[in-house]
Write a structure and sequence with these properties.
- The chain is mostly beta strands and 115 residues long.
- It has one domain.
- Helices cover 12% and strands 34% of the residues.
- The longest helix has 14 residues.
- It is globular.
- It starts with a helix and ends in a 29-residue tail after the last strand.
Length: 115
């Protein structure tokens, strides 16, 4: 549930992984296992935000000397996640690190679901 995902925010920012959600390996919610990663890339530097049943994870994916930022979302408390979407403007041109990871922020939309 989202309460578990919300608790992960601290773990993810400290060590990059947790028993509930972590990028580059698996996310677990309600007994299921879900991979949050882009195949063929080194996935790291997660940022997690949640509100109600909506959650979003942003992370970097590196391939050789190129890096992109990806986001996956869940609308059901983390049981299912969308496919990762590249969100940086120029493909391969993102620059982040563990000290300056990508950040995801939820903004209230017109309805109850964040955008």
């Amino acid at each position: 549930m989202i309460s578990n995902i919300a608790r992960v925010m601290v773990c993810a920012s400290i060590v990059g992984l947790s028993p509930t959600v972590f990028v580059g390996a698996v996310a677990q919610a309600q007994g299921s296992t879900i991979t949050l990663a882009v195949a063929g890339r080194y996935n790291a530097n997660p940022s997690i935000a949640a509100r109600g049943n909506f959650a979003a994870v942003a992370w970097s994916g590196t391939l050789g000397s190129t890096m992109d930022i990806y986001v996956a979302t869940s609308r059901d408390g983390g049981a299912k996640w969308s496919a990762p979407v590249q969100v940086n403007a120029t493909a391969g041109d993102a620059r982040v690190s563990g000290e300056q990871p990508p950040r995801v922020v939820l903004v209230a939309g017109r309805g109850a679901t964040p955008e």
